[in-house]
């Protein structure tokens, strides 16, 4: 009889659920809207209901959960999550287990995404890869010989918070000038808005009926593909920093692959190659010639699928 695992991705607006088998095949999926993230009771109840509905008729052996923030994966405690207010020093593993009686494992969402890539994406057969996600924020994870490099506090791979501008704008982490503040979706938007305020010419105002609030990275990317000068510049400015950080990763780790995922990457189209061009500028020659810089194989479900397989592996005593 096949074994199944449920993988859960706790995001700021949605909590995604996937029922998968050991080959990563998805049999059922669902989601719960996060809503007001102070509402502990409602959110937990919704999650339990969804788990019970998804497991119906399947031999579910384990649950894996990926959650943004700092996670004590050994104890199954969310120490702090930027997305969900009530998840602070919160024993999520025990609470889920007490309610559904299925062994549950929790780790950081980007680490779970990297596990997804390791088993079913670009990380298959890669001895040493670094996973980078570009989206609203920037995350990272390092996988060496099929294991996550966690560091002493499970915080290795916090690539988004490398300081690139010592006098830059403040970041949610408390520091300033973080990579995340220079290259995420929000920073691309900020660049365009700043340009408009300085009187730069752009077609974007027509697209949003002169309402700056409506500008988002999707519209900016559309116009970048149409060669709108300001939008192209905003995208390249962001990607130059991505290339710079990728070169740091290449020079420090000499990895086999850099796998780049996240919502922003998906829409980059041919601009993705500019990351490679910029990385080449700043990397040492030999490690650059031996690294592959690729788009992630799994898309928005990388974390939930990764969490699903993580649970199934952990229950067998595998270490990841
Ligand atoms: Zn930061």
Structure description:
- 40% of the residues lie in helices and 22% in strands.
- It has twelve helices and 13 strands.
- It has helices at residues 40-55, 92-100, 109-120, 179-183, 185-197, 204-207, 217-225, 229-253, 263-266, 272-282, 285-289, 302-315; strands at residues 4-10, 14-21, 26-33, 60-67, 70-72, 77-80, 88-90, 104-108, 128-134, 138-144, 147-148, 257-261, 292-295.
- The strands form three sheets. It has a five-stranded mixed sheet with strand order 3-2-1-4-8.
- Helix 7 packs across helix 8 and helix 8 (229-253) crosses helix 10.
- Zinc ion is lined by residues 161, 171, 173, 175, 178, 180.
Itemize the secondary structure elements and their pairings.
Elements: E1 4-10, E2 14-21, E3 26-33, H1 40-55, E4 60-67, E5 70-72, E6 77-80, E7 88-90, H2 92-100, E8 104-108, H3 109-120, E9 128-134, E10 138-144, E11 147-148, H4 179-183, H5 185-197, H6 204-207, H7 217-225, H8 229-253, E12 257-261, H9 263-266, H10 272-282, H11 285-289, E13 292-295, H12 302-315
Parallel strand pairs: 1-4, 4-8, 9-12, 12-13
Antiparallel strand pairs: 1-2, 2-3, 5-6, 6-7, 9-10, 10-11
Helix pairs in contact: 3-12, 5-8, 7-8, 8-10
This protein binds zinc ion (ZN).
Brief sketch in words of this structure:
The chain is α/β, with parallel strands linked by helices and 320 residues long. The protein has helices spanning 40-55, 92-100, 109-120, 179-183, 185-197, 204-207, 217-225, 229-253, 263-266, 272-282, 285-289, 302-315; strands at residues 4-10, 14-21, 26-33, 60-67, 70-72, 77-80, 88-90, 104-108, 128-134, 138-144, 147-148, 257-261, 292-295.
């Amino acid at each position: 009889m096949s074994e199944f695992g449920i993988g859960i991705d706790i995001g700021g607006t949605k909590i995604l659920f996937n029922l998968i088998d050991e080959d990563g095949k998805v049999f059922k999926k669902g989601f719960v809207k996060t809503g007001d993230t102070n509402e502990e009771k409602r959110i937990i109840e919704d999650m339990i209901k969804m788990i019970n509905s998804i497991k119906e008729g399947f031999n579910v052996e384990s649950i894996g959960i990926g959650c943004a923030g700092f996670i004590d994966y050994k104890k199954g405690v969310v120490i702090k999550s930027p997305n969900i207010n009530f998840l602070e020093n919160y024993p999520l593993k025990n609470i889920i287990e007490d309610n559904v009686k299925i062994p549950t494992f929790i780790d950081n969402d980007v680490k779970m995404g990297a596990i997804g890539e390791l088993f079913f994406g670009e990380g298959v057969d890669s001895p040493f890869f670094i996973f980078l996600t570009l989206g609203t924020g920037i995350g990272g994870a390092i996988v060496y010989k099929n294991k996550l490099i966690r560091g002493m506090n499970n915080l290795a791979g916090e690539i988004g918070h490398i300081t690139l501008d010592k006098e830059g704008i403040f970041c949610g982490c408390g520091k300033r000038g973080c990579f995340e503040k220079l290259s995420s979706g929000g920073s691309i938007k900020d660049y365009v808005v700043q340009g408009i305020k300085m009187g730069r010419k752009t077609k974007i105002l027509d697209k949003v009926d002169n309402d700056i609030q409506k500008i988002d990275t999707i519209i900016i990317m559309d116009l970048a593909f149409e060669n709108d000068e300001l939008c192209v510049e905003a995208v390249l400015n962001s990607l130059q920093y991505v290339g710079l950080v990728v070169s740091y990763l290449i020079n420090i780790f000499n990895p086999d692959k850099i796998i780049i995922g996240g919502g922003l990457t998906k829409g980059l189209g041919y601009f993705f190659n500019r990351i490679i061009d910029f990385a080449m500028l700043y990397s040492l020659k030999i490690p650059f010639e031996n690294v592959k810089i690729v788009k992630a194989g799994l898309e928005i479900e990388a974390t939930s699928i990764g969490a699903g397989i993580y649970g199934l592996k952990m229950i067998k005593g595998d270490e990841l």
